[in-house]
Write a structure and sequence with these properties.
Number of helices: 14
Largest sheet: 6 strands, mixed
Low-confidence stretches: 7-14, 20-39
Strand order of the largest sheet: 1-5-4-7-3-8
Structural class: alpha/beta
Order of helices and strands: HHHEEEHEEEEHHEHHHEEEHEEEHHEHH
Helix content: 25-40%
Strand content: 5-15%
Radius of gyration: 28 Å
Number of strands: 15
Length: 455
């Protein structure tokens, strides 16, 4: 440069400066470039370090995280601290191996992890890699009544969605692109401790409206009535329109059953009038049994409910202690418990609830005999320890907690009741394992997690 004429040097420097300014403006105006190059302090210049919310003995670096490419970030998940202070909320998150990226307190102050784009925290399994997790202090009602806090949250979400090219919409949780509540993420991907309405649908509706985005109620989320959701939602009219049974009562004939505990006609066939009409879904090689209760105290009403929902069980045990084969063959694939249908015989037991099950002693004796007959025929172990191996006798509750796939999920014990499972297994010479003893129950690959707290 020193050998150049001073005028040429000046011209060169001037043009270089103009080019630099042009490049800066160009990359600042287009999310395609900014998504790859923006620093955290440019994204959230007014945010305080989230470390300030941690106790002196707790370090952000100790929070469980995975490195991620910032260009994979395509979603924002909103969480609520409910009635907890933000500091307590974050402490509990870390104690249970969870964490959030950004917190907004009741005064509207934003706290952020300086590396939030480069870290994937565990907060909503199934969508963590793509998500920025933002938690606000208080309940949905609190923040809707707190203009300062709501404004701060709205501004933060707006800035991040603009800078990172995240759609201002809650439509496509399946594609993991948009702004969603934790409630919506749990319904799609599971991985929850309880099913509280975390994040707030009223809040996100107001926010997206003010940001000129698009809000969709649950019925209009993308493919909400299709398969793949941990918490299913059924359209009864659509189910009926698509129900074209190929097998079962009045359509096909069953084969003779070798199971003594099943009711048969005078020729040794399952009793036709007690069978279900169903769609053939193939055959299985049974290695396990799943017990359900119908939650309906009448056999034929239970049968109609299965047909109305295009579902199938293998067997059903009535309140009087009689067991009926519903399908053509025991090895037919039933559709009753997501995750287990390819391996398990599904037994429905007619009762309103667990208490009614236990009170129906003739029915309980039949279930014991039926289970013994089936486990002997198919060499199935008499325990419920490890549902992931599809080898044993399990409750529908256990299957739901592992894989979800039900219209009823609340993280509680409900189908058919662990008290009932313990009674059945222990009385037939098996071994009952309580939930805390289920194999790998503390891992994160369950639809319903075994944790004391979740953000």
């Amino acid at each position: 440069m020193t050998i150049l004429n001073p005028k040429i040097r000046c011209l060169f420097c001037h043009n270089a400066l103009k080019f630099s300014l042009f490049l800066l403006l160009f990359t600042s105006c287009f999310p395609f470039f900014r998504k790859k190059n923006l620093l955290v302090d440019i994204l959230l210049p007014d945010a305080k370090p989230i470390q300030q919310l941690l106790s002196p003995n707790s370090k952000l670096e100790s929070a469980t995280s995975q490195p991620r490419d910032p260009t994979t970030v395509s979603a924002i998940i909103l969480h609520s601290s409910e009635k907890r202070k933000l500091t307590d909320y974050i402490r509990l998150s870390m104690e249970n191996q969870f964490m959030i990226h950004i917190g907004i307190d009741k005064n509207g102050i934003v706290y952020a992890d300086p590396d939030f784009l480069k870290k994937s925290f565990l907060a909503s399994p199934g969508i963590d890699k793509e998500s920025i997790h933002i938690a606000y202090e208080g309940t949905q009602e609190n923040i809707l009544a707190n203009q300062s806090q709501f404004s701060s949250l709205r501004k933060t979400v707006d800035q991040l969605s603009e800078d990172l090219g995240i759609p201002k919409s809650n439509f496509d949780i399946i594609g993991k692109r948009g702004i969603f509540t934790h409630n919506q993420a749990k319904r799609r991907f599971g991985g929850f401790v309880d099913f509280s309405m975390c994040g707030g649908e009223k809040l996100i509706e107001l926010m997206l409206t003010e940001l000129k985005g698009n809000f969709y109620d649950e019925d209009h989320w993308k493919d909400r009535y299709e398969s793949g959701w941990v918490l299913k939602k059924e359209n009864k009219q659509k189910l009926q329109e698509n129900f074209n049974p190929t097998n079962g009562r009045g359509i096909t004939k069953p084969i003779k059953s070798s199971i003594n505990s099943i009711e048969k006609d005078e020729k040794g066939f399952p009793i036709e009038s007690y069978r279900v009409r169903y769609t053939h879904r193939g055959r299985i090689d049974p290695t396990c049994i799943v017990l359900h209760y119908t939650a309906i105290p009448d056999y034929f009403q239970s049968l109609r409910t299965l047909e109305n929902r295009n579902l199938t069980a293998t067997l059903m045990v009535d309140k009087d202690g009689k067991a009926y084969q519903l399908v053509d063959e025991l090895e037919e694939r039933a559709a009753a418990a997501t995750g287990t249908n390819d391996n398990c015989i599904q037994i429905e037991i007619v009762a309103r609830d667990t208490a009614e099950l236990i009170a129906q002693t003739a029915q309980t004796e039949k279930v014991k005999n039926l289970v013994l007959d089936l486990t002997s025929k198919y060499r199935i172990p008499l325990n419920n320890e490890d549902i992931a191996t599809f080898s044993g006798i399990f409750s529908h509750t256990q299957a739901k907690k592992k894989w979800g796939g039900s219209i009823f999920l609340n993280a509680k014990d409900f189908d058919p009741g662990e008290e009932y499972m313990e009674l059945i297994l222990n009385s037939i010479g098996g071994k009952y394992f309580s939930e805390t003893k289920w194999k790998n129950r503390d891992s994160f690959d369950w639809a319903i997690l075994s944790k004391n707290f979740q953000p």
